[in-house]
Amino acid sequence: METKGIVFDIKRFALNDGPGLRTTVFFKGCPLSCSWCHNPESRVFEPVLLFRPARCIRCLRCVEACPANAVAVEAGLPVTDPGLCTVSGKCAEVCPSEAREIVGREYSVLEIIEEIRKDRVFYEESGGGVTFSGGEPLAQPEFLAALLRVCRAEGIHCTLDTSGFAENKVFLKTASLADLVLFDLKAMDPETHLRLTGVYNKEILENVVSLSAGGTEILIRIPLIPGLNDDERNITKTGEFVLGLPKIPGVELLPYHPVAKEKHERFSFTYLGPAAEVYPVERVDEAERILSGMGLSVIRRDRD
């Protein structure tokens, strides 16, 4: 049986997901529940119907198109009953203003590979490749592993963007197939990590150590979230952990971006993250000062 997986987006010419120009494939589904997530539409594994009320022109074509009669009119606005919705996509197909969208669909390995091959000339010219992101790619390990194997066989540079939350044996078997692993470390204290993400970080930290010992190239990335994990203690503890790895990697700082709040609102999700509009550059300066002072190589995303 052909291996298949759920993907919610394929972004071409990405510049911040690894070296060179890249095609980023976004997997659906994530076991973490970070309030500041930039891709809230990726959290659940199944395809979902998203509705943008601000775009709706009230033509009501979706009401007639729905094969399950799940869309009804309330105060002039078409409202979908999630209990009846079968996510057929018919309402999105007839929506002239793109207020309705089905996010996520099933792909075969070959379908994804064909999309990746389209940009091969740009990889070769820029030293780029493909990045598997999400959601959490390791939540679909068989699909991810199959894609990594084909790309490596074809000489396409593979980057894996991950939280590292997976059973150790599965993690090592899959992540070691990548040429580069972008490893997000959100908090070092176990209780803080649980509060921020919904899971403990024991497996995550063990996976970082194991992958580093195996020789896979790693880049540690620290999302700086105002008031949640950007304090001096967490930055210092993260630096100490990185310095203790078998092969010391570089560290990339990722300042919080208000697009997270905007995307939650656009897709009618409840936003529980920080209310900050702009992350203070002084806080990035301080994090860089701490980590550089410890002898680590630091990359700043805000300089891109």
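^ that was protein a. below is b, sequence first then the tokens
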Amino acid sequence: MKITASGGTDGASIVLFWPDNLPEDADKVLNDDPIALVESMRDQGKLIWFHCDGDGGYSVAIFVRSDVPAELMANCGDQQTIPNLVVRGVGYFGGMEYMFKRDATFREEHPNMCAPVSIPDGTYSARVYRTTISDAVYDEWLLKHAGAEAKTYHDIHKFIAIGAVAGVLATLGTFCYVDEYIWYGIASITFVFFAIAVWMPRSERYKRFARARDEFEKEYPAYVVHLT
């Protein structure tokens, strides 16, 4: 069985946790001293605390009593082992700041940042990996699944989006310092860049690229968990 999930963090900490594993006073403790609670739960084998580079989005692939594909395993490293990982009830993958025992209000306000994960209850031996995916592997995947045209289209969109942001800074920065005709010219160009940046993601080429990118994250996630 393979299970995939995506989540994110604004606190540079990603976890896979099970509310049923947390103590009764977890909601209060999470407000007062979340690190201490997470360390304790990790040491008891009741959650996974992933090594994390910083804020942003992350993905995980969980292989339950099935082998990790060789092509994915070749990109796995930074292993940690949890001899007895206790799985009870529905789990959640995402930022530590979204953890809860009963009060899931914050997670419900940001559902994309902490996704539910359903693993059969039990006690597992867990091996946890981080993946290191080269740009070459990523580019080859996108070319194969989205096509060169869609990838080029996406690269152009990135350039235009950067241009739009630069245009805003230039428009604000030159408001009091240049002739009004020059300023209106800068503002007009910025508006055009913004309009194009908003329109391009609606095209089929961009959507095809986005689908390929999402599929890549499922096949080559940031983390791999092997449960046996």
